[in-house]
Amino acid sequence: MIKKILKVVAIFVTVFGFQTTYAATIDHFEVIVNPETVSIWEAVDLTIEAVDRDSNVIKDYEWTILIFSESDRDAELPNSLEEWAYTFKLSDEGHIKFENAIRFQKQWKNDIHVYDLEDETDSVVWIAEVDVIEEAQSQNVDINILSPENGVTIGKDEITVSWKTNKNHQVKIVLNWKEEILTTSDNEWTYEKIVDKLPNWKSTIKAIVLDWDNNEIWSSKEVYITSDSSVPTFNKIKVLPGNEVPAASEMTIEVYAAKWLTDVSIILNDELSTLEEDSDGVYIVELMSPKEVGTYAVDVILKDELGHIIKELDADKVTTTELEAAEEPTTKKKDKCSLWDYSWDVFDWECWEKPEGYNAPIDLWIKDLKIVTLKTKSVLTWMKLNDATKYEIYKKLKWEELELIETVTEPIFEIALSWDVVTHEYFAVKAIWEKEFVDSANPDEKIKKEISWDLSDAIKIQTWPKEIILIMLALMLGLWIFLFKRREV
Fold first, then answer.
1. CA distance 138 to 265
2. Class level of CATH domain 346-468
3. What DSSP letter does each residue of 224-279 carry, written as one string?
4. Do 404 and 422 meet the contact criterion of CB atoms below 8 Å apart?
5. How far is it, in rounded angstroms, from Cα 301 to Cα 264?
6. Tens digits of per-residue pLDDT, 53-109?
């Protein structure tokens, strides 16, 4: 009998202790709907937070909640719910937001109930309300495709379509007048959807706004694009003066390929070298052969303006031989002078030799130049160089004409975007090595020396549209002339 009583007491203490701890943890939910007034066919965002009595969010809340509408049993609930229930994960940190969560079918003031299923007292609850009005007029809903720009050519079979329309509307993207892709606008300004499996030729893209009954109420203008996934062609490679050269000697490599490629490079002895187009389809680079005796494969990499890349591995071979001993020069530099050695704090003019080509130990070649276009900005990045102290950003004005627009110390450059018009400009990057020395001839003076190598290839970046500024100025000037003439009358 005593054992049974102790067992009952233990169970009571355990249950009571659990409920006391639980009650001290969560008090209620805070539920936010946005917007609070919608049309019948519009969806609302639903945000739910588990809070304590002081309205502090409980970040370790991991219980299951029930979401439903008492006033509209036919309301569409979030697809992520299983039988109207959602279980918080630790990663939610007590906060969950459902985009385009609920779409009501009945007009009037509708409710959204949120219950804690673990609470047997039904005291942990919150009810939010949404005013559902009659269907909005279709002429108030507009849609415009922001990207891609009309007539653009891309080098792959997928593209990100972005558009602008009212919040929480169903949108249908129509590809080539037949293939339809359903999506939903889910923020205040621009919306995006990846359209893939584009045909390898011209395509048309159109965006259409739908109402609650999937009727078309507005459509955008059609945008035409071209998908070209063909790759650049490689013909042959030539090594001059021949495939067998002395070690650490000058040599020339010619690559014969398609005309007007944006980047042609080779890899020899794990070193990357960029070639320049000397004539149509002929790309040349002068470099030094490997210092060690041996046979080395030459890999060729081709890239066109659409981003297509082709790699021709082991396109040719170079064999290096022993270099005949050269006579020692009659005059030598001072022992302290070392070729390409800029580690000295004291600068000596007799030792200064500016590096050229590929022999310098400092690395100032811009590598992995990449561009990422986001909703509000374009971000240009490249590999950080240990020898570079700063980077210069140049904008391409005309053919072969560049303008220095900014100097940065980190390998990143950002350009703000406009959300309604898309334009593009070309940018290039140059790495700079900079150091301050003490003049050996005048110890009280400082000498600053810089070394820079060639610019990177120009890269196409989405930028702010200058045309809008010009149009605004023209409108202001026209308004001023109109008011001036009216005053004369």
1. 55
2. mainly beta
3. EEEE------EEEEEEES-SEEETT-EEEEEEEESTT-SEEEEEETTEEEEEEEEE
4. no
5. 6
6. 888 999 999 888 888 888 888 787 876 677 788 899 988 898 998 887 787 877 778
Q: Is the pLDDT of residue 455 over 60?
A: yes
Domain positions in the chain are 2-133, 138-227, 234-321, 346-468
Which residues, listed in sequence order, are joined to residue 327 by a DSSP beta bridge?
Answer: none
Cβ–Cβ < 8 Å for 114, 31: yes
Q: Rounded CA gap, 255 and 392, in Å?
A: 30
* Rounded Cα–Cα distance for residues 220 and 109 (Å): 33
Number of H helices, E strands in the chain: 2, 34
State the CB neighbour count (10 A cutoff) for residue 294: 11
Strands 64-68 and 85-87: antiparallel
And the tokens for 247?
């070690």
State residue 293's pLDDT score: 92
pLDDT number for residue 244: 92
Nearest alpha carbon to residue 109 among 75, 138, 67, 66: 75
**Residue bearing tokens 């290839």:** 457
CATH number of 234-321: 2.60.40.650
Both structure tokens of 284: 């040349």
The reply to whether CATH 3.40.50.300 applies to domain 2-133 is no
Q: Tokens 């990143």 label which residue?
A: 412
DSSP string, 279-306: ETTEEEEEEEPPSSSEEEEEEEEEE-TT
Nearest to 295 by CA among 251, 252, 244: 244
Q: If residue 450 lies in a helix (H) or strand (E), which one and from where to where?
A: strand 446-452
Q: Which residues of 120-156 are buried (b: 16+ CB within 10 A; e: fewer)?
A: eeeebbbebebebeeebeeeebebebbbbeeeeebbe
Where does 138-227 sit in CATH, by number? 2.60.40.10
Instruction: Report yes or no: 432 and 390 within 8 Å, Cβ to Cβ.
Output: yes
Query: Residue 7: what are its φ and ψ, rounded to 5°?
Result: -65, -45
